[in-house]
Structure to design on (648 residues):
């Protein structure tokens, strides 16, 4: 039982994740996307607190001086003079737009993340079970998905939100998470089902059954981790989709309600005054657009980074 | 737990496993019976498609049903009929009383799970180990199978091991709970020749330590000579010959066995053209009425295609499925 000279400590083992990470870093567009996402996310998380500590106002502070209750252009103060106070200008009630954009970012991000998480949990479980069990149960489960897929989601969400209006702001948000997540799990389920179906005939599954592992454990501990690649890619691409949906709903007045703001509700306010005070729409719109396509670049990059490894493994 | 007395650990009686297909029922295993005592090693030899793998998967009921079905028969392990067990009892059985190692270690280990996790799962599941106990046990098992620097390498992924080492990991996993029966399905087919001997020696040593029984499945006759106590030759889902190993090699009682033995190249002689049993194994969905080997048999006569051969008892432990078993047996000259 001699040790091969080739397997000495000179060769460092890498995991499949590390290989994928290296590949991702080579993709400049994906790295750009990742950086933007991180920057905007961080700004949204610490920004509002930072602003209220340094400049003294939050996203809904209406200035006490009634002269200031109007929409200022970026970097403009009272009387048209240059001022550092509002880099993005103010809205019609004199509230600082930068603070509002960053606060809105908080909400938009939280909603998108939680909704994606919900869709992930439902989609992965559903798809994994359907894929592994196969047969008639799989047929039934997938037909249900097909039916749900064909329903127009906007109407469903609107109906859900109208039928069961929540009383508290927290409740409203939770409802929104659920409504958005409950609709976007469908594609995730299909993806996971495909992955599981291609994996379940591999010999390690038989080997696991031969050691007495129970079926739920085989599905969730052995197979699902193997299927994570496409799941991560799709989750990263679901986030911008959900974010856009939330923006759309808030734009319609169904999503986030005042006094809370999200990028969508800011866009709704700004759209009303587009001709006169364009900055009210431009800044929230730009920020959201930037976030959306950075997430898409990142998602594409992840897909490329993880795919060749999928073919290998 | 190893049995003290000399009774059978495993008794398989008239096992039939059929697969439903568009052409009808494929009779993968058609009336297989054998016994195995504790501590013995049984070799099952046969061509691809002879039913050897299906028969052994059935011992743990790992056949996908549908399309497969264990149509009849009994598999009694340590007094309990496996074919009648509940799902719960089966899961307890697998990995703990019966363990299996597969042909290709490349694909039988989960590529996304660390080796430590895969090893620990077995003892955590069956022996109720805590994480620490399981880990310590796993390291011990890896050392036992000869993995250098076991403690340092246990957290690696399967692709970081070579083929031979992966098979050792599989053996470690299979023997973790000291099973009474180890089924090794072509354990060395995917390995280099130099490693093959090491792996077989390893299996021999470890199972001797716990007095476990072994079923070694292979299509390679050379392998079984040094490892097994008894041999079964399978063809078309049936047992064609059964005998103690030495006797089967010295005095085969079946033309098929003789053909197989002739096919093994002899490195010491100048052979010229290698011998090959002519023809192909039959379509298991359309088996003939008579002997399934009749079309390819040198010794075949008219009765062979007409009538199914009897299972003739040649000596106390030697049986052969052939109309001319006795004659074939007697014709062996003792060298």
């Amino acid at each position: 039982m001699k040790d091969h000279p080739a397997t000495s400590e000179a060769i460092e083992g890498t995991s499949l994740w590390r290989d994928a990470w290296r590949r991702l870093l080579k993709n400049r567009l994906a790295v750009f996307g990742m950086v933007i996402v991180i920057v905007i996310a961080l700004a949204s998380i610490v920004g509002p607190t930072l602003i209220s500590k340094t400049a003294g106002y939050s996203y809904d502070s209406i200035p006490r001086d009634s002269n200031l209750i109007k929409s200022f252009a970026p970097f403009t103060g009272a009387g048209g003079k240059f001022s550092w106070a509002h880099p993005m200008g103010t809205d019609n009630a004199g509230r600082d737009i930068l603070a509002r954009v960053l606060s809105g970012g908080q909400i938009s991000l939280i909603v998108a993340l939680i909704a994606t998480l919900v869709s992930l949990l439902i989609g992965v479980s559903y798809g994994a079970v359907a894929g592994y069990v196969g047969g008639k149960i799989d047929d039934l489960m997938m037909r249900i998905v097909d039916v749900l897929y064909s329903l127009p989601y906007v109407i469903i969400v609107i109906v859900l939100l109208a039928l069961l209006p929540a009383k508290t702001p927290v409740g409203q948000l939770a409802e929104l998470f659920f409504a958005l997540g409950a609709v976007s799990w469908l594609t995730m389920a299909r993806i996971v089902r495909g992955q599981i179906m291609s994996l379940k005939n591999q010999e390690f599954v038989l080997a696991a059954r031969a050691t007495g592992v129970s079926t739920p454990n085989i599905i969730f501990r052995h197979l699902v981790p193997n299927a994570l690649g496409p799941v991560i890619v799709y989750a990263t691409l679901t986030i911008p989709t959900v974010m856009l949906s939330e923006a759309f709903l808030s734009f319609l007045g169904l999503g986030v309600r005042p006094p809370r703001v999200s990028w969508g509700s800011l866009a709704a306010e700004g759209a009303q005054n587009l001709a006169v005070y364009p900055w009210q729409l431009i800044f929230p719109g730009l920020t959201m657009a930037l976030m959306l396509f950075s997430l898409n670049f990142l998602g594409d990059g992840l897909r490329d980074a993880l795919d060749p490894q999928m073919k290998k493994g | 737990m190893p049995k003290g007395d000399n009774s059978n650990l495993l008794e398989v009686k008239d096992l039939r496993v059929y697969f439903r297909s568009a052409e009808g029922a494929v009779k993968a295993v058609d009336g297989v019976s054998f016994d195995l005592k504790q501590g013995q090693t049984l070799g099952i030899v046969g061509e691809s498609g002879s039913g050897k793998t299906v028969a052994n998967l059935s011992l743990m009921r790992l056949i996908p049903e549908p399309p497969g079905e264990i149509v009849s028969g009994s598999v009694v392990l340590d007094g309990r009929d496996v074919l009648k067990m509940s799902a719960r009892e089966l899961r307890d059985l697998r990995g703990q009383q019966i363990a299996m190692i597969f042909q290709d270690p490349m694909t039988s280990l989960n590529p996304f799970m660390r080796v430590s996790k895969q090893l620990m799962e077995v003892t955590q599941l069956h022996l109720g180990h805590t994480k620490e106990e399981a880990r310590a046990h796993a390291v011990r098992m890896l050392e036992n199978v000869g993995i250098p620097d076991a403690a340092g390498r246990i957290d690696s992924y399967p692709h970081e091991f070579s083929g031979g080492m992966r098979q050792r990991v599989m053996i470690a996993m299979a023997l973790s709970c000291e099973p009474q029966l180890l089924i090794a399905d072509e354990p060395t087919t995917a390995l280099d020749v130099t490693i093959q001997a090491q792996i077989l020696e390893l299996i021999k040593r470890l199972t001797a330590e716990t007095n476990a029984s072994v079923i070694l499945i292979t299509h390679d006759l050379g392998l079984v000579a040094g490892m097994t106590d008894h041999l079964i030759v399978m063809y078309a889902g049936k047992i064609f010959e059964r005998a103690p190993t030495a006797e089967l090699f010295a005095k085969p009682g079946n033309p098929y066995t003789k053909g197989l033995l002739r096919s093994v190249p002899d490195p010491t002689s100048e052979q010229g053209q290698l011998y090959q049993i002519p023809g192909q194994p039959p379509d298991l969905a359309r088996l003939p009425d008579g002997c399934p080997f009749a079309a390819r048999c040198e010794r075949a006569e008219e009765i062979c295609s007409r009538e199914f051969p009897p299972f003739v008892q040649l000596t106390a432990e030697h049986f052969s499925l052939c109309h001319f078993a006795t004659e074939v047996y007697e014709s062996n000259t003792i060298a």
Q: What stands out?
A: The interface with chain A takes residues 60, 62, 90-96, 99-100, 102, 104, 107-113, 121-122, 125-126, 146, 148, 156-157, 160, 162, 170, 173-174, 198 of chain B (CB under 8 Å). The CA atoms of residues 43 and 224 of chain B lie 6 Å apart. The mean pLDDT of chain B is 86.
